[in-house]
Amino acid sequence: MKDKIDKLSKLKEEAKLGGGEERIKSQHEKGKLTARERIELLVDEGSFDEVDMFVKHRAKDFGLDKQHFPGDGVVTGFAKIDGRPIALFSQDFTVFGGSLSETHAEKIVKVMKMAMKTGIPLIGLNDSGGARIQEGVVSLGGYADIFLLNTLASGVIPQISVVLGPCAGGAVYSPAITDFIFMVKNTSYMFVTGPNVVKTVTHEDVSFEELGGAETHASKSGVAHFVCENEIETLLNVRKLLSFIPLNYRDKSPEKEFDISKLTYEPKLDDIIPDSANKPYDMKEVINLLSDEQDFFEVHQFYAENIICGFCRLGGMSVGVIANQPQVLAGVLDINASTKAARFVRFCDAFNIPILVLVDVPGFLPGTEQEWNGIIRHGAKLLFAFSEATVPKITVITRKAYGGAYDVMNSKHIRGDFNFAWPFAEIAVMGPKGAVEIIFKKEISKAANPEKEIEKKLSEYIEKFANPYITAERGYVDDVIIPRETKQKLINAFNLLRTKVDTNPKKKHGNIPL
Question: Of 19, 144, 406, 437, whose CA is between 20 and 30 Å from 34?
Answer without folding.
Answer: 144
